[in-house]
Write a structure and sequence with these properties.
about 260 residues; alpha/beta; 2 domains; 6-stranded mixed sheet; 12 strands; globular
């Protein structure tokens, strides 16, 4: 029986106990009859271990990148595609030669497509939209890139605001939010097993009709989303975005 050469893919980050990627790609390969591919988790406590990982696994063709390395991985890239360059964060690596990897950002693709599918796309094209992003890490940059592409004003909410366009949680007031507000949570707060945690934002600030989008997918409904829903907000978790970005990464690896 003829055997196809095995193409290997995987995920780097730390820790990876919360990741859905390995199961997602295993199910995808089985569902689509892909017999020449394998996907594994590679928890790296230190990103300096990446060159050794690549040397020890020469059949790797592509990698996803998650917390906390979406920005730190950039120096390891031979080059970045246009979107990753503009965002300043990478969550997808593609091998283009024996020692060269190109960085991409499929978080932006997944986030944009998920909003295009929600409520007829009104959260990307409705009147007087404004967005507040909780967190300032790599995922937040992909979110901001998409919103600014659609000319939606963006403000970051941070525990320690240090740049223009950032405000602190304690400075939030009811005047910041309205029915045209998108609140996007990009921090790990509330991820399993710490499901009773949420960013320090008072639920009394939630405005009926505003969109609260939590990029966390485990649990499916975080404490933040439960509170927002109880105050009449439209809510969304990160599972669809995660699925869409994974499919975008797969497409990149196959070209």
């Amino acid at each position: 029986m003829f055997e196809f050469p095995l193409k290997r893919y995987g995920l780097i980050g730390y820790p990876l106990g919360h990741s859905f990627s390995e199961q997602y790609f295993a199910a995808k390969f089985a569902r689509e009859g892909i017999v020449d591919a394998q996907y594994n988790l590679f928890p790296l406590e230190n990103l300096a271990l990446l060159p050794d990982l690549l040397q020890q696994n020469p059949t790797l063709q592509g990698l996803n990148v998650t917390i906390p390395y979406k920005e730190k991985v950039i120096p390891y890239c031979y080059k970045l595609d246009e979107i990753a360059q503009a965002i300043g964060a990478v969550n997808c690596l593609k091998k283009v030669s024996e020692q060269q990897w190109v960085g991409y950002n499929t978080d932006a693709i997944g986030f944009e497509q998920s909003l295009q599918r929600l409520d007829g796309g009104q959260w990307l094209s409705g009147p007087h939209l404004q967005a507040y992003i909780l967190g300032t890490g790599g995922a937040s940059k992909a979110v901001a890139y998409v919103l600014q592409k659609h000319q939606i004003p963006v403000t970051y909410i941070s525990r320690n605001p240090c740049q223009k366009g950032q405000i602190s949680y304690k400075d939030l007031s009811p005047s910041h939010f309205s029915a045209n507000t998108l609140l996007i949570q990009t921090t790990p707060l509330g991820t399993h097993p710490n499901t009773e945690e949420m960013p320090p934002i008072s639920p009394t600030l939630f405005y009926p009709g505003m969109l609260v989008y939590d990029l966390i997918y485990n649990p499916a409904e975080t404490l933040l989303l439960r509170e927002a829903k109880s105050h009449g907000c439209t809510v969304m978790n990160g599972l669809e975005m995660l699925t869409l970005q994974a499919e975008a990464a797969w497409d990149i690896w196959q070209v």
